[in-house]
Structures are given as C-alpha cells and as structure tokens.
Write a structure and sequence with these properties.
The first copy, chain A, is an alpha+beta fold. Chain A is built from six helices and three strands. The first copy, chain A, has a three-stranded antiparallel sheet with strand order 1-3-2. The structure holds a DNA duplex.
DNA sequence: GAAACATTTCGATAAAATACGATATGTTAC
DNA sequence: GTAACATATCGTATTTTATCGAAATGTTTC
C-alpha cells in the first residue's frame, strides 16, 4: 500500500471520477454486451466513452490505477473489466488518517 | 476543500513527511530561538534543515501545502511559522471516505 | 488463418513538477 | 540607514506527467 502512489493516482480529475463511477457502475454505464451486470467491473471501452479520453489514454489511466492497486482487472475474451479494490481503499483511508 | 489539489500536494514524499513532522514538532525539531514551543508551528529554516531541501525549495513546498489549505502560516518578526490545518485534514479524510 | 474487434504498448510532444542558485523583500538591531 | 538574517520569488535546467495517434498484441468468429 503505497500512499504516495495512490495520492498521485488520485490527483487527477478523470481518475478520481473513474473511481467514483466504479463505485456504482449501474448509475453510470450502459450494460455490457457479453457479460451480465458489473460484477467484474467495467470494460475499458465504456470508460473511454464516458470520460471522453482517447482509448489509449483511458487504458493508460486504468493501468495507473491498477499500479496503485486501486482497481482489479479481469480479462474475459476480448475485454478487460476493471473493478474497485475496496480492500486497498479501506487500508488507504485508515493509513492516511492514522499517519498523516 | 479541493481534493485534487490536496492529493497532488500529498503525492510527494517530502511534503508528506512535512505534514507528519508537523503532527508532533517536539519529536522532530529543536526549539526555536525567539518563540516558546511550537504553538505557531515550525519555521521554514527548520524544515529546510530537516528535509535537506534547499531553502527555496522548502519555502516553495510550504507554499504548495498552504495553497492546498493544509497548513496555516503565521509571520512573527523575521520568521514564518507553519502549523497543520487539522480542520482541512479532517474534512479531507471524511470527504475521501464518503466520495471516493 | 484472415477479418474484426478490444486492449495494450510505443513513440511523440506539450505541459507541469522538481529543485537549485541567485536575487528580491521584509524585519530586526545596531 | 545599513548590516544581518529569514523568507519569498525569479530564472532555469531536468524530470515526470498528460495525451494523442499509430502500431502491436490478443481473442473471437468465420
């Protein structure tokens, strides 16, 4: 759990939004075509559309969030679904409050 | 309370350390010469010494923390003392937990 | 295996952050 | 008022981040 890496990942409006969207995907995304619900998270294409970022930047941002351990990727067929890593977030919030 | 600005301010090891040091100045700094205790916070020179940063960078970093409303400056004589802004930190922790 | 599609990786370039020394500003003490 | 000192600001060089389009990789379907 790297606080600095997490803070850097969350020091960007779009990446913060992505984390918020992933909190409640039903409210922010239309259903996937090949998967029931958002149990695995949301695929890169949907985040690309929703954010207005280029596809490559969207993918890159997700990899930054993943590197900070804030999201968990699952590859299914052609798609990579990303969901929140609530365990990391919980440790992060606790650690911040205790340490900083 | 600007979460992004705060995250950016805290996405740097030295600035995170400064916030930690300011939590308990007695444990990290030798006493001031012209002021009793650390009620007003810690002067720039001490942070410059402790951090190993140049004087100008130390001053700059403190201004970044101040811009994020994380510290409160008090000028007394030649010195500017910086102390934590615990009100902002409390809102920040709460907001992060609620919103992100 | 070739076409179609989703995602990642690879440059490229512009913007922002890091960090310094030098200079300017403000304060105190003579 | 000038010397001494603390801090802030300026100018600059280096590194990192942001962001894109293009190319590469991986999957599925014919």
């Amino acid at each position: 759990m790297d606080i600095i890496k997490i803070n850097a990942a969350l020091a960007n409006k779009t990446r913060l939004d992505i984390m918020r969207w992933l909190k409640n995907p039903d409210a922010h995304f239309t259903p996937h075509i090949s998967v029931e619900g958002f149990g695995m998270g949301v695929c890169v294409g949907k985040i690309h559309e929703k954010s207005g970022l280029s596809q490559s930047t969207a993918s890159h941002y997700l990899s930054i969030l993943q590197d900070a351990d804030l999201v968990i990727p699952t590859r299914i067929g052609k798609w990579t679904y990303y969901k929140r890593n609530d365990a990391t977030l919980e440790s992060y919030f606790n650690e911040l409050r205790k340490e900083v």
